[in-house]
Amino acid sequence: MSTLQSYTNATRPSASSNSGLCIFRTDTNAIEVSDGTDYLTYNNDGIYSSYPSNSYSAFFDATNDTIDTGDKFDFIQNTCNFSIVAWVKFTDHTSTTAIQSILGTTYTSSQKGFYLFYDNRVGNNNILKVSFPAGTTASINVDDGITDDNWHHLVVTCVAGGTLKLYKDGTVIGSTSAPSTTTTTAFYTMKLGSALISGNNTNGLFGHMDEVGIFNRELTSFEIDNIRGTSKTFPPISSLYRFENNADDETGTNNGTNTGATFVTSEKPY
Fold first, then answer.
1. Taking 90 as the threshold, does the pLDDT of residue 175 lie above it?
2. Fewest C-beta atoms under 10 Å: which of 6, 128, 159, 168?
3. Which helix (H) or strand (E) holds 17?
């Protein structure tokens, strides 16, 4: 009987020089296969992707820069079951003149959308805000959500009729009751790094964003830890934007359209 060679994340051979290699990960009890670039991870509940290396991030200058992912994520507003993960690093979190929109669906004054933004205008205290439309809007407002210009891993999860949560660096920093249904019938494009109000091209992110993942279910805290940790293991995912010198969806066909954002050497913790 033949067996696969056993490795940990730290000891496994390079994926780039071992295309087709199959190994067994003793630290995750998973089978991994090299595709010549990275390892694809197979667990008993589906295919997992692992991206231990990262060379670039997307930089947004707060004015007119955006990556438009289209209207492929209707389930966010339709089912109220989703998770969104992203690494974010502000160039200047102390600005008191504008909102810094991180990501969300565009909206008009009469039709609200999902969004995550940072607000340090006069009277606010470094607020991280998540808002989600569904009849009565479900919102999370966290004072002093970010107080530096370092990299932070932000995650929003939602379960219909359960809880809407905001994580920072693996810890829940805010939560509220989630809607079970939504009255929103129009679905707008999901944009990364730009203002969310239709026709307004200011108030965007001034800083870096990396490894944005969108899921059609709630992630567990264990899965979130694996995503932000050194192994960088992603469970089955709807779309993943790693910004490796492009705005492509690395797990599917929903490539983003980049307007103005630049791709620069990444400075993430790992």
1. yes
2. 6
3. none
Please indicate whether residue 233 or residue 149 has the higher confidence score (pLDDT): 149
Determine which of 4-8, 68-72, 142-146, 185-189 has the lowest per-residue pLDDT on average: 185-189
Q: Strands 5-7 and 66-68: what pairing?
A: unpaired
| Nearest residue to 28 (alpha-carbon basis) of 41, 16, 17, 15 | 41
Q: Which residues pair with 34 in a beta bridge?
A: 39
Question: Do 41 and 50 form a contact (C-beta atoms < 8 A)?
Answer: yes
| Strands 22-25 and 5-7, sheet pairing | parallel
* Both tokens assigned to 79: 């089912």
Spatial separation of the C-alpha atoms in residues 73 and 76, rounded to whole Å? 6
Sheet holding 127-132, edge to edge: 138-142, 127-132, 115-119, 99-105, 190-192, 66-68, 257-259
- Greatest Cα pair distance, the chain, in angstroms, is 69
Apex CA 183: angle with CA 175 and CA 186, to 5°?
Answer: 110
| Position 149, amino acid | D
